[in-house]
Amino acid sequence: MKNPIAERITDFLKQFHPFSSIEYVDLLNIAKNTRVVYLEKNEILFKINDNTHDCFYVVANGAVGLSLTSDSDEVLIDKCDEGDILGLRPFFAKDNYLMTAKAREESILYAIPIESFKPIVANNVSVLNFVLQSFASNTRNPYDKSHKGKLLSENIIHDDSTTEIQHFQPIKYTLNPITASPNDIVKFVAQTMSSRKIGSIIIHENRLPIGIVTDKDLRSKIATGLYSIDVTIDKIMSSPVITVNENLSIAEAQIMMLKYNVGHLCVTKDGTIYSEISGIISEHDIVVAQANNPGVLLKEVKRANKVSELKLIREKIIDLIQNSIDKNIPINHISSIVAEINIAITRKAIELSIEKMETPPPARFAWINIGSQGRKEQLLLTDQDNAVVFEDVADDKYDDVKKYFLEVGNSVTKKLNKIGYSYCEAEMMANNPMWCKSLTDWKSQFKGWINTPGDKGILINTIFFDYDFVYGDEKLIDILTETIFKESKDNQVFYAFLGADALKNPPPLGFFRQFLVESDGEHKDTFDIKSRAILSLVDASRLLILSYGVRNINNTYNRFLKLSELDPKNAVIYEACAEAFLVLLKFRTEEGLKNTSDGRYLNLNELSKLDKVKLKNTFGPINEVQDIIKNKFQLTYFT
Q1: Which of 63, 206, 253, 586 is the S-S candidate for 104 at Cβ 3.0 to 4.6 Å?
Q2: Handedness of CA 257, 258, 259, 263 (dihedral sign)
């Protein structure tokens, strides 16, 4: 007698690993014992510390989130979509679940009894390998691109001693460190450091960090008699203090110390000097926590004296990215670390170029990266985007000063091109007179873009609002930033133009939910993941973060996380956007690594059905955040 429900379940499961390796008749017998489970939105399937069930689950429709904490402080770790397996823990352990599973939308799950499935696992090598690899690699599906890389799952307890991923785990550091006020006397601060047995102390004003004093400062400035022990502590402190955000990885911490040549990092709530102090990281913390990490490449950059040496280092980055992906390192960690190495290479290219100039720089200047480099999202060998800001000089010196920095810009961009960063086709580089200007000229440029966006082509130059300081005098960039936020505050015309730009690419699905692909040209029938998906999230995050007046957060992923804090009622959407961005970035990175390209165009025929589902699932958050933009900036009425 036919069982239409069991047949329907069988046909569904047969599309996904590991069920595709099971004979149809055997899978049908399993399906006959499978229950259909319906979950309302936010309904919990199981909680942390619940006893394990007698079955595991496959998502048939909807989405189930996995979190590490209770609902009062939920930290989303993973999301299970169509075809994903969850709750495999009973295969490996008798103790309780390590995560909470909760429906993120109305969902239908298939509950497959453990006892019915165990004989298949025991007798089918392919299924056994899948289950074992899932457990060993700490992923729900070791064959799936978008979930390959999850460091945590409901299946295992994470082992911090695992050497392959150790350096990308959050570093342990001192919380709520001892601090001092700038007017405190050195003598008493030193006594505090001695009694508390600490080697450093952060100087603050209203819990915001303004400097740091270490044992080295006491030796070099007080013990030598340079300053009296009775002066105020602000006289000998190092300022500004280097700040980082919470949950910094071991590798990121070491790279930051190497980058700024410091032995301590101040941890703040959002990673900037504008938020409250929450901890301090010392070199000792890193020594205790790490053995080897990507910081070695950063040291090689600092020692390099030739472009050829920098080129070899840049080529090693590709291996670093590939190895990190193979070892299941999260893409946001990879992106952060690669960005710092790229910045170090650029900085060295600038230093080498200035050394070859006949005279030193005639004025203070700052080199900035813009676009994807400015957002620290450049993983693959994409083009270079940069600019120079130099201080205001007398009118009779202006032409000579600009000529000098254009020569430097030309030398640096040539070096970067030889290293492997191709020229920008739009010539948005520091060797272009349009992008090498004085501070006043740059302020005027941004004022024009902001106050008369229709006249100045703001839709073309939005990437200039994603910039990152690389070399020179950072105070020049701070002044520029101040101008941007002053001019853009409550500027509805500016936001409307940015909003129109952010909405130019709707979610890339046709009427019948098919992918919108290139219709002609060199990349015909491929999917442009950059312009059709990634840039939609980049543009949305830029517009929204600017509208909230948030500074010093340029990365798309981090922008969405910050937006989830600023706008709690839409937090779920912003978190989904952050997650979708990482999925898209990983698809593009793997495509680029596979074809030695920038990964922009995906051949959909090479993707599994499961990966196509994952890709389509990133389009939902794009639609939702675009709806937020339409409502927030009233773009329905904007023409």
Answers
A1: 63
A2: positive
